[in-house]
Design goal:
By secondary structure, the chain is of the alpha/beta class. The protein has 8 helices and 16 strands. A hairpin with a 3-residue loop joins strand 1 and strand 2. The structure holds zinc ion (2 copies). The site of one zinc ion has 4 residues, from loops.
């Protein structure tokens, strides 16, 4: 239960923090959220949308557009105390802010149109937004404009960080699977270990990237494995995983194509190992490298009009707005919302000394719940007009 001595949204944030759950497993978190929303008497509500997603809508008296505010339900596999999952991306704080919108909407409806609050599952794996948008229930809540915020460590507390165009990079995981041929560890020359090809691919992907080529492109090798560590066997398989990033979806596609080509060439160069005697049985696979793409995130591209709504709202809320000079290297699956309507994702400064997102010491600062809520609230007024007054009983 939330601590009754705290500000209710701070108490809710800490309660959600205690119930941190991994992407796709946000059942308890979704239940807390759904209870909070249901008590604020929405006109329409849906749970279990695209996984554990929760949607709720409040309408004004006059017709008008639907404005959606989105936050994320999931936490990360980063230990905290004796627990193995924790909110180290601050999604607990984002949820508290959007939950605060439900309080505001119950007390004061928009003058026109409709506000939808969306609690999205599985952001961290990049799967949740697309599943939410594709869920049949989502059609009832379809927005005309969508907004989201993300806390930003390293930025002044409560500052709004904004950018027109790409705010967060496109990214994708590239998994490379090398196949050779096993042999006795005492006779490695009779098989074909992918060890050298793997080592060269790790080195090539780690060193190759000309920053002048396409600004914003980045490759990070995130994993490599050779064989199974069986001491009697020269291995026949290896795997290298890397995350590729770029400021645009087009640049990312070009980067992926080039990376695949480079790695295929390296694998091919090592496909015919030096041998003292020819193989007697089946020849080597003609295709020594397979690759697959996982966890794709599109670039999050902010619409100019939506960015202007955020800028005006922040100004009315008395917050400092900072321009982001270029896109963040991290990715956000909120970019998928741009496939259905104009969007804006903005940053909310989490403090200059705040540890980075996903750092084991990161924690959402409760002091920025109020400014985040103020921006969403002012966006609502800016798009839908001041107040439709209290409604319901
Ligand atoms: Zn994250
Ligand atoms: Zn996040």
């Amino acid at each position: 239960m939330p601590d009754p001595t705290l500000d209710p949204l701070v108490a809710l944030r800490r309660q959600l923090h205690e119930h941190a759950e991994l992407s796709g497993n946000e059942a308890a978190t979704a239940e807390i959220v759904a209870r909070h929303l249901a008590a604020r008497e929405p006109d329409d509500m849906a749970t279990g949308v695209g996984g554990h997603g929760v949607l709720a809508a409040w309408s004004g008296p006059a017709p008008g557009p639907t404005v959606l505010f989105r936050c994320e339900l999931d936490a990360l596999p980063i230990p905290e105390g004796n627990k193995r999952v924790s909110h180290r991306c601050g999604h607990d704080g984002h949820m508290a802010i959007v939950a605060g919108m439900a309080d505001r909407l119950r007390a004061r409806r928009p003058a026109s149109g409709r506000v939808v609050l969306a609690f999205q599952p599985a952001e961290e794996t990049g799967a949740g937004a697309a599943r939410l948008l594709a869920a049949p229930e989502f059609a009832r809540f379809r927005p005309d404009l969508a907004f989201a915020l993300h806390n930003l460590p390293g930025q002044a507390l409560g500052h709004v960080i904004l950018r027109e165009g790409t705010f967060a990079s496109a990214s994708v995981g590239l998994r490379l699977i090398l196949t050779g041929r096993s042999a006795h560890a005492g006779e490695p020359h009779k098989g074909h270990s992918p060890a050298l090809a793997m080592a060269r691919i790790v080195e090539d992907l780690s060193r190759w990237i000309d920053p002048q080529w396409r600004p914003g492109t980045l490759i990070t090798v995130v994993g490599a494995r050779l064989g199974r560590g069986a001491f009697g066997t020269s291995p026949d398989d290896a795997e290298v995983s890397a995350t590729l990033r770029a400021w645009t979806d087009q640049d990312l596609a070009a980067l992926v194509a080039q990376a695949r080509e480079r790695c295929a060439r390296i694998a091919q160069e090592h496909a015919e190992p030096l041998r003292s005697e020819p193989l007697r049985s089946e020849p080597l696979r003609s295709e020594p490298l397979r690759s697959e793409l996982v966890e794709p995130f599109p670039a999050t591209v902010n619409d100019g009009r939506c960015a202007a709504y955020v800028r005006d709202a922040a100004a009315r809320a008395g917050l400092t707005v900072e321009a982001l000079p270029h896109a963040h290297a991290w990715s956000e699956d909120f970019g998928h919302f741009a496939s259905i309507c104009p969007i804006a994702l903005f940053g909310l400064g989490a403090g200059l000394q705040q540890p980075a997102l996903h750092d084991p010491d990161h924690e959402f600062p409760d002091t920025i719940i109020a400014p985040g809520l103020a921006v969403f609230s002012e966006i609502t007024d800016g798009v839908l007009g001041g107040s439709g007054g209290a409604q319901g009983g």
